[in-house]
Design brief:
alpha+beta, Phenylalanyl-tRNA Synthetase, Chain B, domain 1, Phenylalanyl-tRNA Synthetase, Chain B, domain 3, six-stranded mixed beta sheet, elongated
């Protein structure tokens, strides 16, 4: 925001130098980036945060200086010389979408003379870097920079039916804007139309057809309040950024329309001549109520540590434009927020106003007193264990947006899952809230591949969303992905690539380090996983999550040239499960015995089934079963494979003889033969 020092001083009589103005406004949160010496003026450039639309004008800055200095700010007095003809007799305003345009004011001036602007007006605009167009357009720009209220002037005689209709665009409508570009309009875009066609984009730019020209004799002035979300959405879709849209996107003053349009009408009559028709048309179908907020004195010290005199608080808030009513002297106030302060909503906002004008540098360098005891939120200990486990395994944490591209998210959810769509997404290409964390990991993998990183381990913890019966619901997930070399720093084994068992091992380590032991792993039918390398982890009948290799079709779609292994687990479910009891077991005094068995069996039989069956024999000396080799291929029957398992026997009270161990082996072999039609391999 560019401010002319000379122009600013026409609204407030302060003795501050340009550098002092910049410094004092910076100290209250309106950061001055530079002070530039011009021929007979100074240009102060500010970086205004998006919530302070009230400061995007010279008078807005004067208001802030008034609160700092105690000197009253003022706007020029408006004296209108109106004709006898009523504005309502020659034009009308109809608002069909009041939720997008709650208020629209209009005035008509007949018999104007369009010409170059007077020297003082040209200099005012040039002092802040704006070029002069003609007297009518320059006046609207001047009032915008003076009061922060965007206005527009139409050639009244070019408006079909001499009327204004505020509505959304119809299918197939286009508008050639003042920059000479033909715009294709969407049906959710707010336009200003005449009796037949669009003539302007609401809050952004006027149309070429109805622009002011040298032939213009009658002018219709517009000053309105448009919904910020509507202007922001349209400006982003059409890739348009104007002085008007910049202010409307941040929230203009809904109560300043009449004041601004009257000021504009006065200047038009003074500079361009003409007769101002009587009365302003003020279409206000959706009245905006001012915000009423209560302020409690102890809250100021509690939040900032500042001790401020109550009388000073009342004076300061009055100077900032608030209507202050004392409920309890020195302790409790009710305030009506001014219409130009759309950023004031709650008590904490008022405390911030006090703090920034008293001075952030006055806040004491001490922490507020605290008599409570800190504690983790429910489940936080397990969350930390999950992060520590994955970091210990070499994974790095990533954080992605909660809104995603709908077509990408669709790959990782079932068709029955209801999605949550955003009405006003920050990113037009990402209009949907995520139902899975995997889309974010896929995009992170893509970025890493693009930068030449091929060996990647990533995880993310975050909320996902889906449409419920009455309202959207959210749930917490943890997801991770792995690809590339198993250990890139091991030059002797550079060809060892991660596989299904790496992702499986990560899943098992994660749940076991969270104290969960009674789980099972089964085949998964998740469509985004490779059918031959897809698994799910379950506790009882509840599915905790899915993991495995990304399906070849998705890998091709994402143009990945190497295998990707992913997993996603439900944290909410994991946190609800009880921890397994940890029991102490003394170290064995006797030596354990290991026996290896190899056998041939149908490929459809899973190792999990074999393991469960052996455990089901109830052999108390059998303390561990480990699969150490799988072979399928040459010299084996079709649809068969060979498994090799290691059995660990641990005697408790006395050593076991070879005969006893052989009997246990034979018992296990008999089970495998009878249950799974296995063939022992010697």
């Amino acid at each position: 925001m560019k401010i002319s020092y000379n122009w600013l001083k026409t609204y407030i009589d302060v003795s501050y130098s340009p550098q002092e103005v910049a410094e004092k406004l910076t100290m209250v949160g309106l950061t001055a980036e530079s002070v530039t010496n011009q021929t007979d003026d100074y240009l102060i450039e500010f970086d205004i945060t998006s919530n302070r639309s009230d400061s995007l004008s010279h008078y807005g800055m004067a208001r802030e200086l008034a609160a700092i200095s105690g000197v009253k700010a003022r706007l020029p007095k408006v004296d209108l010389a109106e004709g006898s003809e009523l504005t309502s007799n020659v034009t009308s305003v109809e608002i069909l979408n009041p939720e997008l345009c709650p208020r629209y004011t209009a005035r008509v001036i007949k018999g104007v003379k369009v010409a170059p602007s007077p020297e003082w007006l040209v200099k005012r605009l040039e002092s802040v870097g704006q070029r002069s167009i003609n007297n009518i357009a320059d006046i609207t720009n001047f009032v915008l920079l003076e009061q922060g209220q965007p206005l527009h002037a139409f050639d009244f005689n070019k408006l079909a039916g001499h009327r204004i209709v505020v509505r959304t665009a119809r299918a197939g409508e286009t508008l050639k804007t003042l920059d000479g570009i033909e715009r294709k309009l969407r049906e959710d875009m707010l336009i200003i139309a005449d009796g037949e066609k669009p003539t302007a984009l609401g809050g952004i730019m006027g149309g070429e057809y109805s622009e002011i020209s040298l032939e213009t004799t009658d002018v219709l002035l517009e000053c309105a309040y448009f919904a910020p979300s509507s202007v922001r959405r349209t400006a982003r879709v059409l890739d348009m950024k104007t002085e008007a849209s910049y202010r409307f996107e941040r929230g203009a003053d809904y109560d300043g329309c009449v004041r601004a349009i009257n000021r504009c009408a006065q200047l038009v009559c003074e500079i361009a001549g003409g007769t101002l028709l009587k009365n302003v048309i003020d279409a206000y179908p959706q009245v905006i109520s001012p915000k009423i907020i209560e302020l409690h004195y102890p809250r100021i010290a509690a939040l900032t540590g500042l001790e401020v005199e109550p009388s000073k608080i009342e004076i300061l808030l009055n100077d900032l434009g608030f209507q202050v009513t004392t409920l309890v002297a020195g302790k409790h106030w009710r305030l009506v927020a001014p219409s130009f302060r759309g950023d004031i909503n709650i008590e904490e906002d008022l405390v911030e106003e006090i703090a920034r004008h008293i001075g952030y540098d006055q806040i004491p360098l001490t922490l507020p007193t605290w008599n409570g005891a800190g504690s983790y939120l429910p489940g936080e200990e397990r969350r930390r264990q999950m992060r520590d486990t994955l970091i210990g395994l070499g994974y790095g944490e990533t954080i992605s947006f909660s809104w995603v591209r709908a077509e990408l998210d669709a790959h990782f959810r079932s068709k029955e899952t209801g999605v949550v769509m955003l009405k006003n997404s920050i990113d037009e290409e990402r209009p949907q809230m995520r139902t899975s964390l995997l889309p974010g990991l896929i995009e992170s993998l893509t970025r890493n591949f693009n930068f030449g990183n091929r060996n990647i381990k990533l995880f993310e913890v975050g909320k996902c969303f889906q449409q419920g019966v009455e309202r959207p619901s959210e749930y917490e997930q943890i997801a991770f992905a792995i690809t590339g070399q198993r250990n890139e720093s091991d030059w002797q084994h550079q060809q060892d690539m991660v596989d299904f068992y790496d992702i499986k091992g990560t899943v098992e380590a994660l749940v076991e380090n969270c104290g969960l032991k009674d789980y099972k792993i089964e085949r998964s039918n998740a469509t985004y996983l490779h059918s031959g390398q897809a698994a799910q982890i379950k506790v009882g009948e509840k599915t905790l999550g899915h993991f495995g290799q990304l399906s070849p079709s998705l890998r091709d779609e994402f143009k990945f040239k190497q295998q990707i292994f992913v997993a996603e687990l439900a944290i909410d479910l994991l946190l609800s499960l009880p921890n397994s009891e940890v029991k102490y077991t003394p170290l064995p005094k006797l030596q354990a015995v290991n026996r290896d068995i190899s056998f041939l069996l149908p490929e459809k039989v899973s190792y999990e089934e074999i393991q469960k069956a052996i455990i089901g024999l109830g052999i108390k000396e059998l303390v561990n079963i480990k699969l150490f080799d799988i072979y399928a291929g040459k010299n084996l029957p079709a649809s068969h494979r060979s498994l090799s398992i290691s059995l660990r026997y641990q005697p408790n009270l006395e050593s076991m003889t070879d005969q006893q161990i052989n009997e246990l082996d034979e018992k296990i072999i008999a089970l495998l033969v009878s249950t799974f039609n296995a063939q022992l391999r010697r």
